[in-house]
Fold this protein.
Amino acid sequence: MKPVQLFCWHFMAYPYLDKDFDEKEYTGWVTVPNRLWDNGKTRGLYQEYIDQLAYADDLGFDGMVLNEHHQNIYGLMPSPNLIAAALSQRTSRGKIVILGNLLPLHLNPMRVAEEYAMLDQMSDGRLIAGFAPGGGPETFNYDVPSANTREKFWEAADLIVRSWTEDGPFAHEGRYFPLRYVNLWPKPLQKPFPPVWIPGSRSPSTMTEVAKRGYCYFLSSRSHGGETHRAQQEFAAVLEKHGDKYHPFRFGILMSTYVGETDRQAREECEEGVWYFLKNCLKGHLRREGRQLTYGPGIPYIPAAAWREYLKSYKPGRKLLGDVENWDELDASQSIIVGSPETVTRRIQNLIEKAKVGNLLIQFQLGNMPNHLARKSMKLFAEKVAPALRHDSFTYFDKEYPGVTLERSMEAVH
Amino acid sequence: MSGRIIEVNQRKVQVLERGSGAPLLYLHGFADVHSVKENWLPFHEKLTERSRVIAPAHPGCAGTDENKDIENVEDVVFHYLEVLDALKLVQFDLVGSCVGGWIAAEFAVRHPEKIRNLVLIGAPGLFVEGALIGDVFMMAQPEYGSSYASLREMLFAGCDQVNALDMFPDGKGELEDEVRRYQMLRLSSRIGFKPPYFYNYSLRNRLHRVTSPTLVLWGEKDNFVPRSHGETYAKRIPGAELTIVHGAGHSAHVERPEETARLILEFLSR
């Protein structure tokens, strides 16, 4: 057994919007006008963000997390692989998690196989390879038809893993990506292949496909009420059905936190960044204001029968995370945990035990949070929160999952 | 479920049929039977006064089985060749609205001999430079949590029209209507949501192959398929004429059912 794995996730938000952005602009995604990009201010921004991730490595986080977004202020990483390449040379300990490359957006999945293999070599076997199908906004970014996204996604993911594990050249006779000479140079370093993580939003079919392949399931929800626990139970049941056993390192969640010296100081320091994140970065994604691109019939990627089920419980106009109106509502959503080291420790411990989750992917930098505050919060977390979480989770997991060996976990084994 | 189910190449196809007289194959669009409503609209009922109207639901729509191998409009044309065999339809009038109009045009350039008369209503399918077809998929994503006003604005002359609100209400509509809307978007995503967006570049250079008399109907204020597309159809199909339905948007058959049906009936009676 091992303790909870603590990762630092950076989204690389665009932090220079004017205060009246929400009032003036319809959305923060896809069509957010790029005249708002201010080159006078953005010099050094990527450096600052990369430095924060390298700092996470110095502080002893178990890894750094990146992901792919296009045309928005939420995340300035159309190519997370570029940032991963930089991190591979700036850091030496932590995993580099890319969660993930959006496979249906790539003309040829071999490009992902090649770049991930390069990154695994460049980082000396520290890559955790995430594959994601892309959501609503990405559908519009790259004009990816939705109906066959899932089929395309799994064909691409399977081809990539096959190219990592099977000697080439071989011909791939696939429906969407037929290729005559699959013959990967370089190969990834980790054997049999880098750990694979797949994000999902509780759809049974994704859980099933993940279980079949022995991968790690990552819940892409940003709020952690009862649904996180339910997702864990559902995934455990699916694993059981496939002759596999759940343990906490098969599962990961995304959360955000800000740690300050006291509860009050924490809130005061992070509030501006938090509201910037909620009202600007989530506009178009997890807000009702403007046009909401993440859920809706315009991206019909699930079969009609599944849509019918979804509609039965769907409440039009329901509040999404970015619609919270005050701090108490935000607090109740368990999405952004803010407070003193003691408060944050207690709340995250509670979350770990409820959701039986072994991989916490934690966002520290929120919206336009200044560099020094993001770093201070990371440091407080590493020094005053992480040790207790590690200690207690180790004991808890050891008690709850006796006899679970991690041989089928996605640990690097080189 | 209304109508009947026929078996076509091991797949179920839902077909509505009413009326007697010359066979008329109707291919549906977004605001239509099978894609919202379970049953005939007043427009179709008007057509049954003269014709035996046969309206199959597209693959994956209403009670018709989904076909995951459908990747482009060509695959839909082949699907309809099989449907016609199953229905034993050799020659017929072909009326298509919206996406159904595109399928009809693609069908007509390949099998002109099967078509007695062709009617296209607000049909996408063509590349017309400088006249982008609207993004119906983005408009189908709700605004302000539950508003579909901009979708109605695209598919109708005005978003507050009663007929528009009836077909695409805000919030959550009747469950099975919602599912049919979704199914139609899903089929359309297979054939129309990718570059090229709702068109087949080659189609306009094939339109001269149409041999039947052709009527091109366009709503006066079509916010989905610009009128220049109608003009291009009319110009490139030999002998075709463009008629504007005044006061209507993209869904003339819903917004001006009497007039649209009358124009078609007059055309068919020539």
About this structure: The two ends of chain B are 36 Å apart (CA to CA).
